[in-house]
Amino acid sequence: MIVKMCGIRREEDAAYADEVCPDYVGFVFADSPRQVSVEEAVRFRKDLRKEIRCVGVFVNETPEKMAETAARVPLDALQLHGDETEEDIRKLRSLCDKEIWKAARVKSAEDIQKVQMLPADRILLDSFSKEAYGGTGRTIRLDILKEAEITKPYFLAGGLNPENLKDILDEIHPEGIDISSGIETDGYKDLEKMKKIMEIAGGNNG
Ligand SMILES: O=C(O)c1ccccc1N[C@@H]1O[C@H](COP(=O)(O)O)[C@@H](O)[C@H]1O
Asked: Which stretches make up the N-(5'phosphoribosyl) anthranilate isomerase (PRAI) domain (predicted)?
């Protein structure tokens, strides 16, 4: 199981991630309580061991700005978590050679069909919320995932936490998981929860 831990926004978070060593960490550049500047992401990246890859999370950002951020940090992958189109993905690909991940905020099986058609390197299935684009802690609807025809490997996100992860992985078999609020206590990353996730999911496979 590939593990991404998202929303690193303090030096402590980077130190915790360095200790538990997920495959990926995420820096949120979009509007969010977890938003970081490029300068902060550059600093946190330096605190992480080399094998941890870094993903930038963007919502409806221009391809030019994403490519610039990817080069400056530097990032290994860009996660598009908004309403980005096929055209945006193609433009971004022409500007930068990093992996492009596209997230779908799943309300129906159709949302899964649509995201699978896009020219992204990886897809991520997250829960839908009217209030925010991501990082809500709202659990994804497993019934939709079960009924959809999922033809590509995917990352599962949306309300995963140390209490529910094992049961969910008994039912659903993603290639990776992405967790933000479920590894926090009172809005800040929690080392014990991060350790627990690594115990349940493994990690360092992708
Ligand atoms: O983490 C955020 O604050 C965030 C903000 C805007 C877009 C995406 C964001 N994070 C992604 O949201 C999902 C689910 O997070 P959670 O575990 O339910 O809190 C995950 O893919 C994060 O990468």
From this structure: 3-199
